[in-house]
Write a structure and sequence with these properties.
Strand content: 15-25%
Distance between the termini: 57 Å
Bound molecules: (3S,4R,5S)-N-benzyl-3,4-dihydroxy-5-methyl-D-prolinamide
Strand order of the largest sheet: 7-6-5-4-1-10-9-8
Largest sheet: 8 strands, parallel
Length: 449
């Protein structure tokens, strides 16, 4: 291995209580809200085909006109208590809010930037009431912070001249000041969700990103910061030049999920997902595939089955309300979580062989393994192959009329669980009580006779 000063400082997952809490939460709510919600993907009758929060970079958008949108920011229908209530109903245990996206507009009245809510008709702090409302519901808050800041004259994508380096030096002080300010203003937040760290200026300054992370940890012990913040001294990101994960969890799963256990190497990880194909901020016209609640639920289940968290993104409108499709999904996911949430919270990789009908999720640290069935086989029977030295002690379903009869032993540690032929319109859950046992097949057979 290479001698690295600014690579990973820890091998393996964090074992402290803050990280255990994050790991048990499994379902998060991402909120992208800012000036980009005003154009909502359209400008002067034309439709922007990119992600709505990137409209400032569209050649048809005069940047000065975009930058002046702060004069229109006035979310008269913003009700953070309602936001928190609906997130709580959905079953989200944490929320990530954009304090500042790439455009540099701050949703809090920052001392270090004029480009904030303080300069808007709204005037007031947006972040504080949101943190308070979510915390009151028992939902943890994480602060999204973009290192890229198109509004800051000292920001650079790359350092080409000595003048660039002097400007960027000032920019790094500005970043550190804003992050310090955010922790002082909102001391109950559990971590930062950094973004916009792919440019050369940042990638080639691994020592700063490393020192910044350590500074933030000293300021606020226990902070949870993903792998997207840092680079090592060779410009490697997420995984250092020795292949070791930096940060507290793998944070590269954006609009994509790992397929199998081997893809996550036992690391903590988090996937963040849009409901349309690629819109984080509010876009008036969602084009392409819009994920159904069952699709989002399956992604959540898949994430938990692979030992990761799943965060669903919402893009409120400029007036502070949520679009119908997003409210619908929160309500549908809420219904499912109220019945099946026990399979998700505290869930992790069961270490069982994957089957076509769906996913296994182990209640962490126990012999309870949930089966979340997403694909009912036409045979009506679910194959379950237990690992060696594991016996089946009991089988129940979280809802009535799911299982018919008792599991049929079909081979060494292998069973068919027969289903009641009701047509299911959502994933359903079966709970397996297992036990580690030196004698194979003795468990369920014994319980049955
Ligand atoms: C969480 C999302 N990240 C921002 C983004 O630009 N992602 C696209 C991207 C992802 C990875 C490398 C470069 C660019 C999007 O605007 C959202 O904020």
């Amino acid at each position: 291995t290479l001698p690295l000063e600014h690579g990973a400082h820890r091998i393996g997952n964090r074992t402290d209580a803050d990280m255990a809490r994050w790991r048990s939460q499994r379902l998060g709510q991402f909120i992208h809200w800012g000036l980009y919600a005003i154009p909502g993907g359209e400008w002067k009758g034309k439709t922007y085909n990119g992600a709505a929060e990137w409209i400032r970079s569209w050649k048809e958008m005069p940047q000065q006109e975009y930058d002046n949108l702060y004069k229109q920011f006035n979310p008269v229908n913003y009700q953070p208590e309602e936001w928190a209530q609906q997130a709580n109903d959905m079953g989200a245990k944490y929320m990530i809010i954009t304090t500042k996206h790439h455009d540099g507009f701050c949703l809090w009245p920052s001392k270090y930037s004029k480009y904030s809510v303080a300069a808007s008709p709204w005037k007031k702090d947006i972040i504080g009431p949101m943190v308070d409302a979510y915390n009151k519901k028992g939902i943890d808050v994480y602060l999204y912070f973009s290192i890229i800041d198109w509004n800051q004259p000292d920001w650079r994508a790359a350092l080409k001249t000595p003048a660039d380096s002097i400007a960027y030096q000032r920019f790094k002080v500005f970043v550190k000041n804003q992050l310090t300010e955010l922790l002082q203003r909102y001391p109950t937040v559990k971590g930062f969700w950094f973004d916009g760290t792919w440019d050369d200026s940042w990638k080639n300054d691994g020592s700063f990103s490393d020192e910044l992370e350590q500074y933030l940890q000293r300021l606020h012990p226990g902070l949870i910061i993903g792998s997207r913040l840092r680079a090592d001294e060779k410009g490697a990101r997420h995984f250092d030049s020795n292949g070791r994960l930096m940060g507290d969890y793998e944070q590269g799963w954006e609009r994509k999920l790992p397929e199998k256990s081997a893809d996550v190497h036992g690391n903590d990880w988090e996937g963040v997902m849009t409901i349309p194909e690629n819109q984080w901020g509010y876009n008036a016209r969602w084009a392409g595939h819009i994920k159904s609640s069952n699709e989002l639920i399956e992604m959540l289940v898949k994430s938990a089955s692979l030992g990761g968290n799943f965060v669903i993104n919402f893009g409120p409108k400029s007036d502070g309300t949520f679009r119908t499709e997003e409210v619908q999904r929160m309500q549908e996911i809420s219904r499912w979580m109220k019945i099946n949430g026990s399979a998700i919270y505290g869930g992790t990789d069961a270490g069982f062989a994957k089957q076509d009908w769906g996913y296994y999720i182990r209640k962490s640290g126990t012999d309870s393994v949930y089966m979340v069935v997403c694909n009912v086989p036409v045979s009506g029977q679910l194959r379950v192959k237990l690992p060696a030295q594991t016996t089946l002690v009991n089988v129940t379903s979280l809802e009535k009329n799911i299982i018919s009869g008792t599991p049929e032993l079909i081979g060494k540690n292998e069973y068919f669980i027969h289903l009641d032929h009701k047509n299911q319109d959502a994933p359903f859950v079966i709970l397996l009580q297992t036990s580690k046992d030196s004698r194979d097949n003795s468990g369920f057979e014994k319980a049955k006779t």
